[in-house]
Amino acid sequence: MDKINTEKAEQETNAVAEERVRKAERSIIKKFRRELWCRFTKAVREYELIKDGDKIAVCISGGKDSMLMAKLFQELYRHGRKNFELVFLVMNPGYNEVNYQLILDNAKLLRVPVTVFGSQIFDIVAGEKNSPCYLCARMRRGFLYQKARELGCNKIALGHHYDDVIETILMGMLYGGQVQTMMPKLHSVNFDGMELIRPLYLIREQDIIRWADYNGLRFIRCACRFTEKCAMQDGPVTGSRREDVKRLIRRLAEDDPAVESNIFRSVENVNLHTLIAYKKDGVRHHFLDEYDISEKCSADGENPA
Prior knowledge:
Number of strands: 8
Radius of gyration: 22 Å
Largest sheet: 6 strands, mixed
Shape: globular
Order of helices and strands: HHEHEHEHHEHEEHHHEEH
């Protein structure tokens, strides 16, 4: 009798899990179709993120963004586009046991067949006093590229979204004294033949949160050893420049909702004739280099601006 009861309980548990994953998948295509599915497929098309024969390592950090990205890729493959292969890659850079187990549990719940490998990045950067986050990010990407190439992949996909993009633009201006953006795709400098793609490029963070909340999903929030005390807490992570910029954009958008899209579009509408200087391929170009030529063109009725 105990064995029968145990089997029945397992069946009921499996049925509940089955319904949860189906609900999460359906909600991507139906309830959040415009906010998630359409923006994902638009980014794939508009930025040509996937080509025939690609083998993509979908990099899962354990947060809401990368896990949604994994499900979006699964839906894309399921709905007929099968000209590519997928590997769902999880790197453990030294997570605590609670965070690491949550990643594995969510992957199992959402039917994402992850390939896991370890590194000791958190231990390596633990003694770094200057810019540990910068060093950690570079090392994590390097390990992901290396493992992806070992698995025969030619691309890695990261879960940066629209809000990450506009925050990065503003951070570069306010704290870096430069105008640049987080690109939708990049060729790797150190790993020949490898590319980085960002399929969530047009998806808003709030819509990702809504999808997670609607499906009762809980993800790690900040698994870094320096900030892991907030990983299981609700509310915003505080104390970083990115959070400061996030709050600034939010305040500005309350007065003018167009602010966010204007920041995004600003790096699509750059007029080189109105810049003091710019760099291309490592070479700095100054407006004085062609100033006299521009004046002659203007005098001839050929205003370059």
